[in-house]
Amino acid sequence: MTTLPIVAHATPDDIIAWAHGRPVTVRQFLADVARLAAALPAGGHVFNACTDRYRFTVGLCAALLAGKPTLLPPSHTPGTVRQLLAFAPDTFCLHDQPDAAFDMPALYYHDGLAATARTANTATDGPVEIPQVPAAQVMAYVFTSGSTGTPVPHRKTWGAMAASARAAAQRLGLLDGRAWTLAGTVPPQHMFGLEATVMLALQGRAALVAAPAFYPADVSAALAAVPAPRALVSSPVHLRTLVQSGLAMPAADLVLCATAPLGRQLAAATEALFAAPLREIYGSTETGQLATRRTAQEDTWTLVPGVRLQARANAAGDDTETWAEGGHIEQPVPLGDAIVPLDAQRFLLHGRKADLLNIAGKRTSLGYLNHQLTAIDGVRDGAFFMPGDAHEGDPHGHVVRLVAVVVAPGVAPARLQQALRERIDPAFMPRPLYFAERLPRNAAGKLPREALAALVATLSGTQDRPAAPPPGFVIDAGHPAMAGHFPGHPIVPGVVLLDHAVLALGTALGRPLAIAQASMLKFLSPVRPGERVEVLHQAEAATGGAETIRFTLRSAGREVASGTLQLRGGAAQAEALPC
């Protein structure tokens, strides 16, 4: 039976953590683990909700020695707790907050519980036996939110997690003989936080910083309180907050980033802020860490030691999928990303396949659009959202439009829209664009789709009102054109219909339309004065990349006209938010 040590540090007096302003040695850590393992309740699974990173790590290792898998859900809401109990009815909660309340048996990990073991063992200078754990033992079940809202468990063995951490430590240069310290803004319950602030400390011979570091002042204090070399483990949303805060930061020796795509501009700004190289990590809950790159300088990803990528035909046989295998990956795993291999170790990443958009014959990804939005000066946070699953509109002619929500206090809507037009194709302009005080990100900085959808619904008011009718217009009998078209039998002239259709479209899209050409015009049925005319429209591709709009006019259930409008220069400048 293959076993691996619970820590990889060279001596029991090596520092494994910085907690409450003081160093914690491996000797003290193992005593705390043994003490807590003996105090754990009889339940077979542990829901580790500790917010202090050191106590979380002690709890993780205590559960490992007691043979109890740890459950790590995506949130700690009452609904999620009920789903954990449905998965494992013998679950109990380990927490370190006196006012925590979970609807399950619980153990409060307080100062006294740890101090007993620490006081009893700090004076001991004798040899310490490092516990060995079977590689095949299940260490944890890490849950993702799942497309149906039900958390999906991913089984993690001790051997796979330890091997992943050792490969990452080798790639990141942490095995250089120096005593590294890891401070993190990402919670340890998240897969990246677990790998990069807990497992990397245990198996990379590093020390973790116990106190949570979320706000800029917390991050500054956490780094300043520990010796070099030191690394900051964070996410793009946290790094953007740090860069925009204007607060000077202590120098670091390394910054690690994951959980969402990182743009080169933000990566460069982060390197300047911390005077340290930034390494972005690519991976997933299913696979763990797969590859790294220095984002400020390169687009190419390089696999961590032992991991391979293989292209395979998908189940339908009409496309290929990329699978990750080898190294710490116990079974081959399909990746949901568009990957272009360069050689056996290097590749380019073009974003998640589920995030790819095809509108008006043009392609992009939500990740690219989000990057362009958040790179605008004054934008603190932002995200695009595609309602439903439609990317090209519905069969009735109604167009499903991209929506965006932005956190940009003090930025004028017109200036923000102008900056977006300079960065993205007109077909992907958000209609509408909403402003919010904040986005509903979770503790890891991720933005769950269901949370963003709820925010968009709230901002649009669609929860409380019916869908708005299509834009339209009415030409009354007093219009000057009616007198001669035709006496006694007035019919709205085609040129008047076209003129009012353009005005209605401009109002609906929130910008005046500069028409370069109208083509394929058909007038199918006469329109009488006083009839309401509805304008249905859809953007489509055009030669040369100019924006075009196909429209249909309807009145009293019948089609009365149709055609295509080509816009001059893509679109005229707008000064108002789209409707």
TrEMBL record:
InterPro entries: AMP-bd_C_sf, AMP-dep_synth/lig_dom, ANL_N_sf, ApeI-like, ATP-dep_AMP-bd_enzyme, HotDog_dom_sf. Gene3D superfamilies: 3.30.300.30, Hotdog Thioesterase, N-terminal domain of ligase-like. Residues 8-304 form the AMP-dependent synthetase/ligase domain. This is Beta-hydroxyacyl-ACP dehydratase. The keyword Cell inner membrane does not apply. It comes from Cupriavidus neocaledonicus. Residues 474-563 form the ApeI dehydratase-like domain. SUPFAM superfamilies: Acetyl-CoA synthetase-like (SSF56801), Thioesterase/thiol ester dehydrase-isomerase (SSF54637). GO terms for molecular function: ligase activity.
